[in-house]
# Entry
Amino acid sequence: MMQDLIGIISDTHGKFDPRIPGIFKSVSHILHAGDIGDLRVLQQLKRIASVSAVSGNVDEGSVPPGVDEEKTLQLCGLRIFMIHILGNPQHLNRALQQRIEQVQPDVVVFGHSHKPLIERHGKVLYFNPGSAGPKRFSLPRSVGLLRIHQGKPHGELIYL
# Structure
């Protein structure tokens, strides 16, 4: 059975882990959920697959054109909403809740907390791949894969 595969990465903070090309070798697209830190990270990701990225709070003043604070895209038959700072999907602030209701995404990809999370709330899959950048505190380093099987998204975390 054919399935589509999208690489999900966030909070690289200028670090490009040498394991990423192997992990993302079969992906058709890569989503970077902000705090890129160094544009060379995006260039290295683009050698693997096409990349869509949003900016994070550490990226101020250093983002290329097309990298906005939020992005909505259609990929592999899904509507995907990307934003760096989301917070807890169970307790979204009113503005974000309204924005998500307006966009009606199948998947929300976010970062910032460095805490990997895959949760479904209603019809929406919330996916934070955690941080692929330098290790912080006792939090794991990780990236994610979004598998689309028969039109349905499924998230997977891969620890670095």
In short: The longest strand covers residues 142-149.
